[in-house]
Amino acid sequence: AKEAGRNAFRFFTPAMNLAAQDRLRLEGELRRSMDLGELMLYFQPILATNERRVVGCEALLRWCHPTRNIVPPGQFISLAEETGLIIPIGEWVLRQSCYQARRWLDQGYDLHISVNISTRQFREQDFRQVVESVLSESGLPPQSLVLEITESLVLEETEQLMEDLKLLTAKGLRFSVDDFGTGYSSLSYLRRFPAKMLKIERSFLQEVVHRRDDAALVEAMISLAHKLNMTVVAEGVETLAQWDFLKECDCDFMQGFYFSRPLPVTQMDAFLADHFKE
Ligand code: C2E
Ligand code: CA
Ligand code: CA
Prior knowledge:
It comes from Acanthopleuribacter pedis. By secondary structure, this protein is α/β, with parallel strands linked by helices. Helices cover about 45% and strands about 20% of the residues. It has helices at about 1-10, 15-35, 75-85, 85-105, 120, 125-140, 160-170, 185-190, 200-205, 210-225, 240-250, 265-275; strands at about 40-50, 55-65, 70, 110-115, 145-150, 175-180, 195-200, 230-235, 255. About 35% of the residues are buried. Bound molecules: ligand C2E and calcium ion (CA) (2 copies).
């Protein structure tokens, strides 16, 4: 397959050839990144809307590349998904996240940790077993773990998968529908998927203070979620006015640069020391 791939480059323009080579090199580097300890998690606080108390945080992956500096996930997650590298990387993220949340719990910070799970990871045969063994190894109570899944997933659900989801949910772990409102099957998704949380995609928040239509959509999403007994998180809160709006609409939780950017663990420790209240 490698030979065929190499020959295929002849048909590309020089610019595309370069892009393909760059991609190959990036893939090799990503493959080694875990062994080299270049992957890191940042944590972004999630706060209660009505009182600004920290209730949880989202783990966000960063790649500290030796020459490219810090590579944001937007630049390598899709490569990791296409190559299957997301399976070991995703498991690493889950394990690190659970161990870190356990440490915070031991320090008296009762937080939930939200972990992004890619569709490909989720569809692995042993997904449920991986989650269960990471929870028991780390000693993190399942109630403290939230798995964020994007909407596109539902198109490929199988009975086995739904069964696994129910088993995990029965243990107390929560699923969150990430980027809600951007997929094209949002509502039917909510009918079948046993999610306890819903996360409103940040593009809906951006103009919410100036655009009546966006405001109406956000309000409707929140009240819909509440009717379904789901907790709502708004992402991408950047201004006080957005926060005020979310308070008005009874949004449960929020996260965004207005409160904090994603932080490396030592800075998150400091943030917790300042902002965590029982
Ligand atoms: P996401 O799950 O929607 O994560 C939220 C993204 O919004 C993060 O970008 C975060 O830094 C950014 N963000 C948070 N608050 C604000 C704000 O107020 N304003 C703006 N402009 N942005 C804000 P990030 O860290 O670059 O991650 C991008 C995406 O990469 C994530 O989107 C998620 O889909 C994916 N990702 C990150 N970590 C992982 C991971 O461990 N596994 C998987 N499968 N995907 C991941
Ligand atoms: Ca997310
Ligand atoms: Ca998003």
